[in-house]
């Protein structure tokens, strides 16, 4: 791995007695799209503020390009932030909003004009310089905010829920645009969201946070397919989770039967939670099914039917299927060994924290 562009080493942040970040450590590589994902209040914005230099860490080290920056002020860091509300100046036009930072740095008018033109082009707002902010749509304002950050040529762009004010269609378009922009510029983006679909669609790497800790990091596929615990499984996507028992490395028992699986790492006889995603289950006949369920309801969701049923042990199963099922009928469900994911059963938060710490020490 190249030298990380940002490193957090056991960073803690507290306000008086309240611990907001607890021993957070990570490396951010240059040129990738990272997402901080987690429920409200878990510490996402705090991490951005510490990177930007708007707040100081209570303990631990923050490095930018290998150099400790704990005591370096925000304006000396090659990092720029795009805020949730864009923080544009309403009384200035688009050009002046973008030029503002350069004017403060006393950059010459010719260079300002050149640079503003260049970033307006990057965000596809060519020719919008003279418009007032009030004449711009939500998506356009968003792009002005990004242009204003890009004009400073940051190595890292921090984006704090920048799409949350947009309606669904525009939001999806902007997700695509932002991802394309990041690829084109090749700079590091660190994006904050509590929307898991957005995180999956946009990121190279996701950090999942809970209560001031990063509890899992990895590619969207890693996190979706191999959630570290039930919290991550439930937070990211829909899942069916039932209790089970490991028979041996590649064999797990649930709903009274044993199944081949490829997900090792648990001890024999260990109690586990077995997860299978709704789209990994397919409908078949009762005879051919690995599981049998009675269909309780189904909803048409456009791309698929969402079928909800229960097995004879009373466990609920959700299936995403392009085929319909009949309410009240019995159907079989099939799945592949690699679609089974096993997690520790009933792990308490303390036990989980101890497990995370043991990984850190390895
Ligand atoms: N200046 C402050 N003084 C005291 N507590 C604070 C301060 N700033 C943040 N906090 C607390 O720190 C915790 C983390 O806040 P943070 O803004 O990082 O969360 P977040 O994950 O970004 O949440 P959201 O998704 O709601 O924006 C919250 O419990 C918040 O109340």
TrEMBL record:
Assigned GO CC terms: ATP-binding cassette (ABC) transporter complex
UniProt keyword Nucleotide-binding present: yes
Record field: catalytic activity: ATP + H2O + polyamine-[polyamine-binding protein]Side 1 = ADP + phosphate + polyamineSide 2 + [polyamine-binding protein]Side 1
Gene3D superfamilies listed in its UniProt record: 2.40.50.100, P-loop containing nucleotide triphosphate hydrolases
E.C. code: 7.6.2.11
InterPro entries assigned to the protein according to its UniProt record, in alphabetical order: AAA+_ATPase, ABC_SmlMolc_Importer, ABC_transporter-like_ATP-bd, ABC_transporter-like_CS, Mo/tungstate-bd_C_term_dom, P-loop_NTPase, PotA-like, PotA_ATP-bd
CDD domains linked: ABC_PotA_N
Record-linked Pfam families: ABC_tran (PF00005), TOBE_2 (PF08402)
Function statement: Part of the ABC transporter complex PotABCD involved in spermidine/putrescine import. Responsible for energy coupling to the transport system.
Protein known as: Spermidine/putrescine import ATP-binding protein PotA
Species this protein is from: Vagococcus coleopterorum
